[in-house]
Design brief:
Shape: globular
Radius of gyration: 21 Å
Strand content: under 5%
Number of helices: 8
Distance between the termini: 52 Å
Strand order of the largest sheet: 1-2
Number of strands: 2
Largest sheet: 2 strands, parallel
Length: about 230
């Protein structure tokens, strides 16, 4: 008499994991985030909080472009971190290079976007699409195992230096950028520019969207880079 083998039912197979290069993830993150920030500027509904300060400077001092002011601002953040650490951190310089590329791409996309329609309906669509793009880009950059855009690097490392929770440091940084942009535009140009409903929506949604996309990435992908520890 043959014995029949009963196969267990409802076995859940472990999802296959994939390994991605951090260098590729960073390149994608910088490209899509620069496009998304340029799109928020073009939509005119309010720029992202961290970008509001260099945007305000570009309005008050228009002899340099938004992209140029952006990577100058990022350079100041990198130098500030080094001063706080009281040492030279070579990887921070790569973060500045990333910021330079981000600023350059910001100008490229900013020059191209005005060819698109500019009705209110389209502007709302542009902004609505930019929010998840920013969230996904942040999720990628946080996992690339490489130095990231200085505005993100600053909040992350400052929280470590002063031993404060990252969310509190990030929120304080965003609010400071918004406050400075209000002082610049309202005080010098006598009208509020750059800050709008989109600024508030971005401040409330970017972190949550980054967490959502980050959880999805963590379920299926591992990231490695030239800086990853050798096994």
């Amino acid at each position: 008499m043959q014995t029949q083998t009963i196969q267990p039912k409802n076995q859940t197979a472990t999802p296959k994991r994939y390994t991605l290069r951090g260098e590729l993830a960073l390149a994608v993150a910088v490209t899509i985030n620069s496009f998304a920030v340029a799109t928020t500027v073009y939509a005119g509904l309010g720029i992202s909080p961290v970008s509001s300060f260099p945007y305000a400077i570009s309005l008050v001092f228009p002899f340099l472009t938004l992209g140029t002011w952006t990577y100058l601002f990022q350079g100041v953040l990198v130098l500030t971190l080094m001063l706080l650490r009281r040492k030279f951190v070579p990887s921070y310089l790569f973060g500045f290079v990333v910021g330079f590329v981000f600023g350059t791409l910001l100008d490229v996309f900013g020059a191209w976007l005005p060819t698109l329609p500019y009705t209110l309906g389209w502007r709302i669509v542009y902004f609505a699409l930019s929010c998840p793009i920013v969230g996904f880009g942040i999720a990628l950059s946080n996992r690339c195992k490489l130095p990231i855009i200085p505005t993100d690097l600053f909040a992350r490392d400052l929280s470590e230096i002063i031993h404060k929770p990252y969310p509190k440091v990030k929120t304080t940084m965003d609010l400071t950028c918004v406050a400075l942009s209000v002082v610049l535009t309202a005080g010098v140009m006598h009208n509020l520019q750059g800050i709008g409903v989109g600024t508030v929506i971005g401040a409330l949604s970017y972190g949550r969207l980054a967490g959502f996309f980050g959880n999805l990435l963590d379920k299926r992908f591992d990231f490695v880079s030239v800086l990853s520890p050798k096994k």
